[in-house]
Amino acid sequence: MTQIVTVPTTPFDGQAPGTSGLRKKVKVFQQPGYAENFIQSVFDVVERAPGAVLVIGGDGRYHNRTVIQQAIRMAAANGYARVLVGQGGILSTPAASHVIRKYKASGGLILSASHNPAGPDEDFGIKYNIANGGPAPESVTGAMLERTRVIDRWLTVEAPDVDLDTLGETAVRGLTVQVLDPVADYADLMETLFDFDAIRKVVASGFTMRMDSMSAVTGPYAVEILERRLGFAPGTVVNAVPLEDFGGHHPDPNLIHAKELYDLMMSEDAPDIGAASDGDGDRNLIIGRGRFITPSDSLAMLAANIEIAPAYRGRLAGIARSMPTSAAADRVAEALGVPCFETPTGWKFFGNLLDAGKVTICGEESAGTGSDHVREKDGLWAVLLWLNVLAVRGISVDDLAREHWARFGRNYYARHDFEGIATEGANALMDGLKAQLADLPGKTFGPLTVQVADSFSYTDPVDGSVSANQGIRVLFEDGSRIVMRLSGTGTQGATLRLYLERYEPSFGDLDADTGVMLQAQIAAAEAIAGIVAHTGRTAPDVIT
Ligand code: VG1
Ligand code: CO
């Protein structure tokens, strides 16, 4: 009989899962009972049959191994039959999603704070994914939060730590823990989706790339797939070893944090394509020789070409994008005669659409793109789809972008982040916006006249659930828009995100500077929201 140890506890404040799980400073997670309370709250509310299988893995950041050992003992006490854990405690977020689906697990714990920095003084996170492999929907995260508020005990067993570095099975008080190769299943899946032969051929004839794994989780995946299976030269993948502090990098694949890659791609020595991924491997950055591709454009360009890849031939059912993502994908959907869905920020909102077969590809402006192959966004998947398209079409990234804009027009797009601002100021700014919504239509700001202003609310077309308050939208008569919302992934103060977009038709100026093209929208945002007054910042911390 398993000896279950019941540990009395009291609730911690603020264990609400945000956009993508519970994220806090490592120091917060190190408090006795903090992680245990949250994990027990998950186990108490999620659906699972007796003898269920649980997947556990993370992005390898500091504190990963500690929480994995805690979670294994708690899984044993909570009636799970089997835990699948990635070797070394590693599973990229998309790989975890695949493992959950492939081995019919009841769900999984993904330990990551994604693009947030790692280390003893930085961030940690825990996210629960359900049996479809996707992030728990709001009904489930809501139940978890309720549970964290009343929890009075957690269950564990007395058992030594499991050796996470050796493949194979160990028994932990009636639970079987299987340490599996974190890369193999995922790499095999990728081979079933894309035309690896076509990619190998262009690589053999001199096509080059640089992949920056930013010392985070994708290194082993990228080396296996790009260098071993596709034949790119050794060293194509840089920062390829996952480090507990990500080597001090801020693994957010954008022009600020992947600057070295950007500089290389803008130089004489640029390879044919440059790519990067984030802490947990679900985001991607694509830069061609001399050409940066915004994530919103990447979604649209991939959607327009996805049927080139073998697994997607003749089966683009629809496209989904998060609300702040540019409408470039909408134009592709319209041209191809498929529906386009607009969801709130966060991958959990794509799950129902994917499960119902309503969409095949989805994406977010924050550098996440993915498809129905898993239920997470998938950084390397997007890179491989780009490679597949370029290889088959024999075209450069820059030429593909120009061709796309010449057909669909171009959505100039930028996101301005004001990070770590005071929570009161951020809330006052959002409240001020809400109070103005009714009066804004008809008002002019420079050359712009407001047509519609609202707070975005989403009704899930599959289960009818409603998610209100998902960001403020101000749409102007010329078709341009600004969006503002507060981040749900930060761990310090508040972060204001301002999204700016302006459409230029195919006969317009397709090769202009984005900052210049968005000047009127930037000025209107300041006039409407009073960003300087509310945040004390005269300029954004990050522009992507
Ligand atoms: C951010 C992005 C959002 C993304 C989320 C999780 O959320 O804007 O698009 O889904 O991070 O991505 P927020 O609430 O901070 O804007 V990841 O790569 O952290 O799993
Ligand atoms: Co991520």
CATH superfamily of the largest domain: Alpha-D-Glucose-1,6-Bisphosphate, subunit A, domain 3
Low-confidence regions: none
**SS elements, strand count:** 27
Q: Which outline best applies?
A: globular
Helix share bin: 25-40%
SS element count, helices: 18
CATH fold-level topology of the largest domain: Alpha-D-Glucose-1,6-Bisphosphate, Chain A, domain 3
- Beta-strand level of the residues, as a percent range? 25-35%
Distance between the termini: 56 Å
Small molecules (ligands, ions, cofactors) in the structure: alpha-D-glucose-1-phosphate-6-vanadate, cobalt (II) ion
* Mean model confidence by pLDDT: 97
CATH architecture of the largest domain: 3-Layer(aba) Sandwich
Physical arrangement of strands within the biggest beta sheet: 2-6-5-3-4-9-8
CATH class of the largest domain: Alpha Beta
Biggest β-sheet, characterized?
7 strands, mixed
How many individual domains?
3
Radius of gyration: 23 Å
Structural class: alpha/beta
Cofactor: Mg(2+)
InterPro entries: A-D-PHexomutase_a/b/a-I, A-D-PHexomutase_a/b/a-I/II/III, A-D-PHexomutase_a/b/a-II, A-D-PHexomutase_a/b/a-III, A-D-PHexomutase_C_sf, A-D-PHexomutase_CS, Alpha-D-phosphohexomutase_SF, PGM
Domain Alpha-D-phosphohexomutase alpha/beta/alpha: 15-147, 185-287, 296-408
Pfam families: PGM1_C_vert_fung, PGM_PMM_I, PGM_PMM_II, PGM_PMM_III
